[in-house]
């Protein structure tokens, strides 16, 4: 009973006013060592997006939510969630949802899964994230103008973030939405004792893929709490969410 009470307190439901909701979104935002201060800002801004765009949102910090029946959610967003902290039951619940045709949006920290720790999830993400250089200002470039997560962005966008480096051990085909120009920052700048190597001209930082009968959108942007007050970043998130939850919004080829 106490656990259920805590989960209820940790959850926030944002509902639309004066309009029927188009779909329902579950956001799991678990704090971690380096990602916790973003939570109140992101929660308020996501609630505003839900009201503005007429969808229902349930916000929680409790990974036990993934063990519940998730079939009523059009999409599940893992927002900076440290997935290595998900226990076996939560992982099974998320796999069950996705394998039944669910849709997932994975933001920043949620793209990281230790190699070999949860192979299913690495394939879902589509890339394996290694270490990353220090947070820097760089130039993000639009790779796919047809995708809704790019509609509010310029072709070259000055942005400050942790530009994750990735590998593709499972040969997953992704559709790159945003890249980063490695000439615009130092991809080797990292903490003492670590090594960060450049990826070269093919450095995706946001992408999408089909997973079974579902959709997956990944953006590795979103480290700073202030990020979630930036209108262009929020438009990037909303465009990705719109496609993930509905499958709509792509500009015809």
Quantity of strands, as a count: 12
Q: Which value, in Å, is the CA radius of gyration?
A: 17 Å
Report the end-to-end length measured between terminal Cα atoms: 53 Å
Which class do the helix and strand fractions yield? alpha/beta
Identify the strand order in the major beta sheet.
1-3-2-4-5-12-11-10-7-8
- Overall form: globular
Question: Which segments are poorly predicted (pLDDT under 50) over 5 or more consecutive residues?
Answer: 1-11
Helical proportion?
10-25%
Task: Give a nutshell description of this structure.
By secondary structure, the protein is α/β, with parallel strands linked by helices. It is built from five helices and twelve strands.
Topology at a glance:
Blueprint (H helix, E strand, L loop, with lengths): L1 H9 L1 E3 L9 E5 L9 H15 L3 E5 L14 E5 L8 H12 L4 E4 L11 H7 L2 E2 L6 E7 L13 E6 L4 E2 L7 E7 L22 E8 L2 E6 L11 H16 L7
Parallel strand pairs: 2-3, 2-4, 4-5, 5-12
Antiparallel strand pairs: 1-3, 6-9, 7-8, 7-10, 10-11, 11-12
